[in-house]
Amino acid sequence: MHSTQTEDPPLLKQAVRAGVASAGVASAGVASAGVETQVVILAAGKGTRMKSNLPKVLHPLRGLPLIAHAIRLAWAITDAPPLVVIGHDAEAVSAAVGNTGQCVLQSPQLGTGHALMVVADRVPIAPNRVIVMAADMPLIRQETMRALIEEQNRVQAAVALLSVIADNPRGFGRIVRDLAGNVQAIVEEIDCSPEQLGIHELNASVYCFDGAWLWQAVRQLQPNPRKGEYFLTDLIALAAQDGRAVRAIVGDAEETIGVNTLADLADADAALRRRINRAHLLNGVRIVDPATTYIDLDVHIAPDAQILPNTHLLGNTRVGAQSVIGPNTVLRNAVIGSHCEVRQSTVEDARMDDHSDAGPYAHLRGGAHVCAGAHVGNYAEIKNSTLGPGSKMGHFSYLGDATVGAGVNIGAGTITCNYDGVNKHPTLIEDDAFIGSDTLLVAPVTVGKGARTGAGAVVTRNVPPHTLVVGLPARAIRKLKTES
Known about the structure:
- The chain has 2 domains: 249 residues, Spore Coat Polysaccharide Biosynthesis Protein SpsA, Chain A; 218 residues, Hexapeptide repeat proteins (UDP N-Acetylglucosamine Acyltransferase, domain 1, 3 Solenoid).
- The protein contains 8 helices and 44 strands.
- The termini are far apart.
- By secondary structure, the protein is α/β, with parallel strands linked by helices.
- The strands form 8 sheets. Strands 14-17-20-23-26-29-32-35-38-41-43-44 form a 12-stranded mixed sheet, with helices on one face. The protein has a 9-stranded parallel sheet with strand order 16-19-22-25-28-31-34-37-40, with no helix packed on it.
């Protein structure tokens, strides 16, 4: 096993920090000696109610799979790699976890209590405390987890758990208290009496256990007579019978949305989107219409940027100060400098430097680089090319595998013919060149500094500097005057 270091955390999340390489689905043991707090993430379920071939924990939410939200939360509250219990489609889930956690295979899958039994077998030395949470609870906050840990530590409880008061039970178990208000048990919905079904305090499936007590108590669990599975929630009644304190912290209903269906996923996405947008607003970003603005977790936007309606900022996008993005714009893994404008356009895996602009209806694809002060017109497309400082690319044009110098004018309808059916070839347009409308540049080809092409020219050979070429194929007709 080895550790890896990740980048500093962007807005709204602690990045997955130094992690231990995944133990893999065939791991025979997991070391945890000396761990103060161990996080266990339950991710073995099939997620049948999602009605999808994709494992539930791999469904995306604001740019990350559900399992990644849980792992990031784990790293935010402890320095030990989380233990991720996997089962259904274990190879895919293990690959998604990668080196951000240690995977422990649960096979067969006999319930949440059995998952803890499997972990106990892998971790012979009990940590001081064990956090157990489901991988399908992506909205739990760091502050809530820390409050749970503090409450467990304050009274040395066998377990402190998170509950929620809600009218919609979402299939959650019910918190049963005695007349004095002490938690006595959690009853799963399938086992609830009619009276218990009327309880509005629900189990959010987030727990902080006394490690030594948990490792002993989990061996006492018995299979549920109806389902034949071991329920983690039965540990609450065992703690009460042992005379150990059980504490429940009531959380926010939105924070405790659990994802069991695609409808739940949509609810979680809407809630997280509101949270992300609000954080950016409080950080000085003007979002004109938050209801139609979609921002992924890892997006960074500088203060004083402006986001117009129906805009999607996805992946690892960065937007500089004083830039205006939108409306109707998609940025994916894009780096946008300061004082830029992107209108009704798509920018993917591409970069725009300060004071550049694109659109409307421009498309910057992978490897596109628009340098400072450059302009990309409407219905223009750039792929794996550089548009130099101060250069202008007219509408209905395409640059592929091209390097364009500074101060170049690309006329409307210009196309770099970079693909010959087998290989792609480069085009070089040097500083201050003027490419006439509807020019075809058949690569590989170079247009020299200060050269010009006539409208409709088909350039199949290199153009010398300060030369005018016209025709099909293009031919030189005269040298151009140069500034002395």
